[in-house]
């Protein structure tokens, strides 16, 4: 989500990616954040976009998402979609779930599977839900305000999270036994309904959770307490609910949005073997439409803060949302290069915000073309590596992947667009192109080098 807060300063700027004469690399490190792997033990790199429909609701929920979203994403080389679903659409009245909404989710998953796009189902909320100014998320029947005031903030909707009524609603969601049970039942229903669908990769248990500060707490202290004392128990409850229906897929857990201020999370241990840490990556100034300022060193500060939890808990990271409001500003090419270089050091993937057809945050314009700097996201990358990555880099010479193969495992490299556009060389393995993917099979292990250059 987008928000307006003070900017952060710290440390040093990072090197660019795909800038002539420089390189962004993914290399092994004993102290590195763990990488996400699949059921075959292959190292994954998930890249894609959020997919949403915030316009339609109720009987028309999700009708704004079409097959075109997934066809176009896949053609551009993206293999991940974070699908926003809203509890108020799923359960408009207590205990009464919308079959129409569930069927629409299934249809969307079918489209994703057709184009080999993995899906993370995200239980999304903006300013808690529809009880507050027409936002989306937690149903009105599950919203308790204690009669406290709520005042809308036109033009700065994120500030509405700090309204007393909204903060009370979060407090009740975390603390009231009946609301805890209702939230768990909603997730058990989703996992039971879609856990066997081949497109599903995981579940993002709640989007950008917030909470109620205590008297005398500054924002970072409040965020860490909420994460430690309320979000951690909530995630463990919801994990248990999901596991009653689905033991296979990953669970994505988010900190509060304070992470964007380079505040290390206070989250504790979520007791599940398939947890993925899924913070968001937004800069205050750029969210308000300003240009990227490399001298503020925000990316380096964010990286330092966000990697502490996954190192301590030994869990992988996938960035659930990121991207600037205006990608046409002069420094935005530098932003994308710096951001991608940073993410390559610790993240197992990301979902940019948002795949739509238009301006602003939209990935592409109405004709499906990437505007300005966003086209820098369209590049070859290793979706899955059957072995130990020893080097991955971009530069003037194109894309280069080096890994130590394991047995006869098959690695997958994404080649966005028509595969004939790329000149590919492979050493130490055999390779076949199928559609937009290159399938690489090592010869009984050993060093494999894949080089991709523009045709």
Task: Report on this structure.
This protein is 26% helix and 21% strand. The protein has 10 helices and 18 strands. Strands 7-6-5-4-3-2-10 form a 7-stranded parallel sheet. β16 and β17 (437-442) form a beta hairpin. α4 packs across α5 and α5 (177-194) packs across α6 (219-243). It starts with 42 loop residues before the first strand and ends with a strand.
Q: Helix fraction?
A: 25-40%
- pLDDT averaged residue by residue: 92
Strand order of the largest sheet: 7-6-5-4-3-2-10
Number of helices: 10
- Biggest sheet, open or closed, and with what strands and sense? 7 strands, parallel
Shape: globular
**Residue share in β-strands:** 15-25%
* N-to-C span: 38 Å
Element order: H for helix, E for strand:
EEHEHHEHHEHEEEHHHEHEEEEEEEEE
The poorly predicted ranges are: 1-25
Alpha carbon gyration radius: 21 Å
Indicate the structural class.
alpha/beta
Give me the count of strands.
Answer: 18
Task: Show the helix and strand layout.
Blueprint: E1 43-44, E2 46-51, H1 67-75, E3 80-85, H2 87-90, H3 99-114, E4 118-123, H4 164-175, H5 177-194, E5 200-204, H6 219-243, E6 250-253, E7 275-277, E8 280-281, H7 284-287, H8 298-306, H9 308-313, E9 321-322, H10 332-346, E10 349-352, E11 381-385, E12 387-395, E13 398-405, E14 410-414, E15 422-427, E16 429-434, E17 437-442, E18 446-454
Parallel strand pairs: 2-3, 2-10, 3-4, 4-5, 5-6, 6-7, 8-9
Antiparallel strand pairs: 1-11, 11-14, 12-13, 13-18, 14-17, 15-18, 16-17
Helix pairs in contact: 4-5, 5-6
């Amino acid at each position: 989500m987008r928000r307006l807060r003070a900017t952060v300063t710290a440390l040093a700027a990072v090197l660019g990616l795909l800038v002539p004469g420089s390189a962004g690399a993914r290399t092994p490190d004993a102290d590195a954040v763990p990488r996400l792997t699949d059921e075959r033990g292959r190292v994954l790199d998930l890249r894609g976009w959020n997919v949403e429909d915030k316009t339609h609701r109720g009987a028309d929920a999700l009708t704004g998402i079409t097959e075109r979203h997934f066809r176009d994403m896949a053609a551009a080389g993206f293999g991940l979609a974070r699908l926003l679903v809203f509890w108020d659409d799923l359960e408009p009245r207590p205990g009464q779930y919308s079959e129409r909404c569930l069927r629409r989710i299934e249809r969307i998953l079918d489209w994703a599977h057709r184009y080999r796009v993995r899906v993370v189902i995200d239980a999304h909320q903006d300013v808690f839900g529809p009880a507050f100014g027409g936002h989306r998320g937690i149903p009105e029947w599950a919203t308790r305000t204690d009669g406290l005031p709520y005042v809308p903030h036109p033009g700065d909707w994120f500030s509405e999270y700090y309204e007393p009524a909204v903060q009370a609603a979060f407090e009740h969601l975390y603390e009231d036994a009946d609301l805890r049970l209702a939230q768990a039942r909603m997730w058990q229903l989703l996992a039971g309904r879609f856990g066997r669908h081949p497109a599903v990769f995981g579940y993002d248990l709640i989007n950008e959770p917030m909470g109620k500060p205590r008297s005398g707490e500054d924002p970072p202290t409040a965020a860490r307490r909420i994460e430690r004392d309320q979000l951690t128990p909530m995630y463990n409850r919801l994990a248990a609910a999901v596991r009653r229906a689905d033991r296979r897929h990953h669970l994505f857990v988010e900190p509060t949005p304070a992470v964007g201020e380079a505040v290390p999370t206070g989250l504790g241990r979520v007791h599940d073997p398939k947890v993925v840490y899924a913070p968001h990556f937004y800069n205050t100034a750029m969210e308000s439409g300003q240009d990227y300022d490399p001298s503020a060193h925000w990316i380096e500060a964010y990286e330092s803060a966000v990697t502490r939890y996954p190192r301590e808990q030994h869990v992988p990271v996938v960035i659930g949302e990121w991207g600037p409001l205006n990608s046409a500003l002069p420094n935005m090419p530098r932003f994308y290069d710096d951001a991608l270089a940073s993410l390559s050091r610790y993240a197992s993937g990301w979902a940019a915000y948002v795949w739509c057809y238009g301006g602003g945050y939209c990935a592409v314009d109405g004709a499906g073309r990437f505007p300005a700097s966003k086209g820098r996201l369209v590049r070859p990358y290793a979706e899955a590596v059957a072995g130990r990555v020893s080097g991955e880099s971009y530069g003037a010479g194109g894309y280069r992947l080096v890994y130590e193969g394991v047995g006869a495992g098959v690695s997958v490299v994404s080649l966005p667009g028509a595969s004939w556009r790329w000149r590919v060389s492979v050493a130490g393995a055999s390779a076949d192109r199928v559609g937009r993917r290159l399938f690489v099979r090592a010869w009984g292990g050993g060093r494999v080098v894949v080089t991709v250059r523009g045709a």
